[in-house]
Amino acid sequence: MLETKFIRENLELVEKSTREKGYKIDVREVLTLDDRRKAILAEVEALRTRRNEVAGKMKGGKPSEDLIVEGKRIKAELAEKEQALDLAETEVRNLLKRIPNVIFDDVPLGGEECSVEVKKWGENHKTGVDHLDYAVSRDWVDFERGAKVAGAKFYYLKGGLALLENALLQYGLSKVLEHGFTYMTVPDMVSSRVLEGCGFNPRTSDQSDEYYIEGEDLAMIATAEMPLTGYHMDEIIDEDKLPLFYAGYSACFRKEAGTYGKYTRGLFRVHQFNKLEMYVFCLPEQSKELHEKILSVEEDIWQGLGVPYHVINIAAGDLGAPAAKKYDMEYWSPVNQKYQEITSCSNCTDFQAQACNVRVRRKDGTVEFVHTLNGTAIPLARALVVILENYATPDGKLKVPEVLRPYLNNKEEL
After folding, report:
1. Residue 351 three-state SS
2. Which of 235, 332, 343, 385 has the most CB atoms around it within 10 Å of its CB?
3. β strands within 285-404, DSSP E
4. 3-state class of 22 per DSSP?
5. Dist. CA 15–CA 386, nearest whole Å
6. Is the Cα torsion angle 181, 185, 188, 192 positive or negative in sign?
């Protein structure tokens, strides 16, 4: 969430970023509402001051009738103005929640097609095995019974594929620990405040991706980024403790709204999957460098798996509300003969920290908001797609990537 002070001082920049990200919001309206809020606040403060003066005059003796009448008038007027102030503050906050973060200067402008490739690794394979056909032939996945139990796009993993998922998690965990991250398990549900603080703000109402718990102020998480964002909510962290590196493992639940026309076959896009997520709290001056660090960890993981990929700098029109800049890593699909998303990492600057009130106390005593970053280490369902496409053999076996063998009893094939 952006502050009104920042918007006032950078109005054209905020309007440009909002427009480039594809959000149809009148940014100036929030300033108009904030001016109204300030005017009401001034009236409330004046009434509170006068109330205290009247109360002081009433002490030490019998108050005059005029003071009693004035006291009652102030009380009634103050109650009315405080109600109006609460309403004005709510209106300002609700509109602020809809304004996305400001993009960095090196973010490409335009829609998804305008994203720019910044690096490439590995040799693209010319042939591969369809992951769903292969997994069904091995009796490793069961979408039919998943649908019977929970609905379409839910599934069971069985046998070798379930073991392979566990091996991928253990491998990914070993890599993030090697890079200095603290491993955490996290709640699978978060409150509305945390959800809003994360800034998962859809461009349109039909793109809301979360499953809400009826009758509770809770939603199922779409990523461990959500509970990790709220971990230090309403806290002030000492400067010498930053940066903080966390790796959260969780189930992820997504309606996958707004994905019409995107690749959805098999395990690639499902309603529930497991994921290992990286998250960083840092000083503002550290965030750009640490964004590159998170990307390098993702590359280290996927180079270890021997999977060809490229990295793209995501264009403004395809950025979510919280991100000032995002990299996507896309693996080469030998089946579809194109790049498809496997991981991403975002620099959210202080956008989430402001909404969740996460601050740093500098050595000189000043306090300001931290920066937050996130990145995917291993999205397990999608990672299974990648491994099957790249490592299934013509004779029906699956060659196990060397880095996964220690987690599969050193088997070379499944």
Report:
1. helix
2. 343
3. 309-313, 325-333, 338-347, 358-361, 367-369, 371-379
4. coil
5. 39
6. negative
* 3: its two tokens: 């502050």
List, in sequence order, the alpha helices (H) in 179-329.
Answer: 192-198, 225-229, 287-304
Residue whose token pair is 């009693």: 68
8 Å CB contact between 250 and 200: no
Sign of the C-alpha dihedral, residues 236, 326, 278, 356?
A: positive
Task: For tokens 């070993």, name the residue.
Answer: 174
Strand order in the sheet with 235-238: 235-238, 358-361, 367-369
How long a stretch of residues is the chain?
A: 414
pLDDT tens track, the chain, 414 positions: 899 999 999 999 999 999 999 999 999 999 999 999 999 999 999 999 999 888 888 887 787 888 888 889 999 999 999 999 999 999 999 999 999 999 999 999 999 999 999 999 999 988 899 999 999 999 999 999 999 999 999 999 999 999 999 999 999 999 999 999 999 999 999 999 999 999 876 554 455 678 999 999 999 999 999 999 999 999 999 999 999 999 999 999 998 755 555 678 899 999 999 999 999 999 999 999 999 999 999 999 999 999 999 999 999 999 999 999 999 999 999 999 999 999 999 999 999 999 999 999 999 999 999 999 999 999 999 999 999 999 998 888 999 999 999 999 999 999
User: Is the torsion defined by CA of 335, 336, 337, 343 positive or negative?
Assistant: negative
CA torsion through residues 37, 41, 42, 43, sign: positive
Residue 197's Cβ-count burial label (10 Å; 0-12, 13-18, 19+) is buried
Tell me the catalytic residues: 254, 269, 341, 344, 382
Secondary structure (3-state) at 376: strand
C-alpha span between 329 and 298 (Å, rounded):
8
What's the DSSP call for residue 317? G
Pairing label, strands 235-238, 272-282? unpaired
Dist. CA 29–CA 14, nearest whole Å = 13
Phi, psi of 210, rounded to the nearest 5 degrees? -95, 150
Q: Could you give the C-alpha distances from 340 to 51, 263, 332, 374, 385, in angstroms and in order?
A: 65, 9, 7, 20, 11
